[in-house]
Here is the input.
Amino acid sequence: SAVCQLFRESLYEQGFCEIHTPKLIAGESESGAGVFTTDYFGTTACLAQSPQLYKQMAVASDLDRVFEIGPVFRAENSHTRRHLCEFTGLDLEMGIHDHYMETLEVVHKMFRHIFEGLETRWARELAIIREQYESEPVMFTAEPCVLHWPEAMEILTDKGFDMGDQLQDLTGAMELALGAAVKEKYKTDFFMLDKYPSLIRPFYTMPDADDSRYSNSYDIFLRGQEICSGAQRCHDPALLVEILKEKGIEVGHGLEKYIDSFQHGVSPHAGAGIGLERVVFLYLGLDNIRKASMF
Ligand code: ATP
Here is the structure.
């Protein structure tokens, strides 16, 4: 409740509008993440894996900054300490005025508001939890701590990991090692890793203008584990169709409506998706995400 309240407060204060998007939809909303399907009067419907396409369409409709708190469904292996099949997504999307770093600044400000608010306004509840589950307040920097992908590759290679062609996603062990190294170097439990390889990001991610092997996309880590994924989105319909072809994704199942929504012009935009239970379990230093999920 506190995390959601602080999330809302910070985003309202930063000029966002709250929206609610469909959860019963015609096609997949995230490539790569498993989808639950269900019968929809004789045809197949999917349970939304994120509000991604809708929040972008909201920006295309000239709502400059939008957010949503809502259920997210992922038909993926959830026999891990940090995955659930149904979780609560904290999502935001915003127009970019000068540079995509604006989004990282908004998100950083929002998380600072959450961390500071938890330690001050919810001190009594934190003290009760910490009697049973020990945790320290999260260390964070006043300005965003942003690493670029090549720096992370260097750190992990130094730590003895074989990073291969440097274009593969990080394993859990790599994330933890990177988190420990960043804490030592930059004195923070909370950092952003920017410029992910395009190959491992969803189709709607904007490639880096200088080198399309990389993209304007980032993950955010808390105590060495991912709590947030975000990116600039590809707002150019022609480039979007090209990327879909490259990734072998068929246009159809509602995707054409999404692409169409950009045909009449849309601001360059970027956003983020955060898992509520992930934030709570890592903030409180719990050993399993289920301890941060009420049901
Ligand atoms: P991971 O690599 O940890 O499986 P992901 O890259 O699939 O996550 P995204 O699709 O980028 O995650 O989702 C954005 C955020 O939603 C994640 O950073 C995380 O906080 C949360 N999240 C994603 N999948 C799950 C899940 N199965 N259970 C709980 N939270 C999740």
In short: The first strand starts at residue 17 and ends at 18.
